[in-house]
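F.,

This is the one I mentioned.
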């Protein structure tokens, strides 16, 4: 009888201990993020790591562009920053595309993660950083003014590569459209009220030298975003010193990526034969802050195609795919002139 009671007591104690341990495990989960990894996080990076920017317009990723990025990262360790999508990108990078040792994902759920030692340590040792899509306002709210933003800046400045897709590209410029109401502004809305409260232009976030004076946008041709880029650039220049260079707007199509070397020269990788990027010269978009629709007689836009080379941050384009002027009158956009470009 005593033995039976002893066995029951041991079972009860074991159950309580297991329950307590389970409670501790839940409490010990990292605050503010989910963590996933695939591959060997401790293996030595096999090749040299060099700088570069991969600016991806969203949609399906171009395989050659990703291989370029992985080579820049020395075929080593990629840290993926996200606020959505879980482990999907990491599995794609390691198991489908291949050519890297590991992919480690930190999916942020709030700002506390931007101070977490594990997150910061992983970023400091990353060979390449990849910023996923989602809602760019999350990135602004979670990272601006935190160690995460500082480490991203230091990573790029030290000559290591960074890539961003969709929202992850939208945050990389000196100034950005923050989408702070989490409702994406359309071109019609932007042109109708470029200086209104829904056009949320943000700054003092990331400080990447090759994107100084540049404002980026994504899903460009597919979502008809040229008009809103005009509005972004116009509002971004309010209060800008007169002797400062104009802001450049850079829109990248879906399925296209602009791969930028450390010297600032960039070329297009694209799955679509017509996929590329669009460069907006902000010179004529330095306009007064007034209510109502945008009115600008001539806005210079240059196409960056498969044979083009762009030089950042100054925006010079060799072999443009098109060279065009647009006019905006009462918030309505038309082509003013389309200069022929030699094949």
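My design for it:
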């Amino acid at each position: 009888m005593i033995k039976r009671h002893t066995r029951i007591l041991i079972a009860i104690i074991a159950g309580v201990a297991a329950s307590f341990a389970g409670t501790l495990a839940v409490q010990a989960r990292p605050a503010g993020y989910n963590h996933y990894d695939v591959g060997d996080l401790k293996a030595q990076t096999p090749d040299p790591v060099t700088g570069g920017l991969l600016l991806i317009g969203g949609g399906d990723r171009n395989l050659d562009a990703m291989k370029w990025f992985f080579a820049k990262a020395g075929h080593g360790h990629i840290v993926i920053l996200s606020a959505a999508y879980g482990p999907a990108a990491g599995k794609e990078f390691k198991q489908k595309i291949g050519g890297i040792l590991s992919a480690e994902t930190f999916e942020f759920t709030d700002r506390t993660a931007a101070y977490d030692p594990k997150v910061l340590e992983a970023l400091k040792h990353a060979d390449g950083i990849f910023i996923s899509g989602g809602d760019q306002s999350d990135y602004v709210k979670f990272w601006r003014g935190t160690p995460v933003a500082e480490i991203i800046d230091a990573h790029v400045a030290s000559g290591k590569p960074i890539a961003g897709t969709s929202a992850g590209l939208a945050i990389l410029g000196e100034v950005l459209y923050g989408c702070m109401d989490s409702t994406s502004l359309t071109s019609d809305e932007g042109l109708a009220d470029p200086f209104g409260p829904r056009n949320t232009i943000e700054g003092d976030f990331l400080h990447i030298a090759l994107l100084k004076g540049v404002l980026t946008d994504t899903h460009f041709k597919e979502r008809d975003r040229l008009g809103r880029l005009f509005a972004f650039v116009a509002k971004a220049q309010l209060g800008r010193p007169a002797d400062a260079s104009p802001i450049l707007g850079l829109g990248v199509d879906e399925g296209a990526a602009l791969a930028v070397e450390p010297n600032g020269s960039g070329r297009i990788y694209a799955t679509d034969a017509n996929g590329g990027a669009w460069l907006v010269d902000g010179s004529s978009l330095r306009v007064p802050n007034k209510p109502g629709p945008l009115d600008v007689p001539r806005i210079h836009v240059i196409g960056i195609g498969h044979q083009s080379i762009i030089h950042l941050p100054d925006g010079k384009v060799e072999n443009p795919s098109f060279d065009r002027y647009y006019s905006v009158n009462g918030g309505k956009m038309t082509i003013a002139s389309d200069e022929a470009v030699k094949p």
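The mean pLDDT is 92.

Talk soon.
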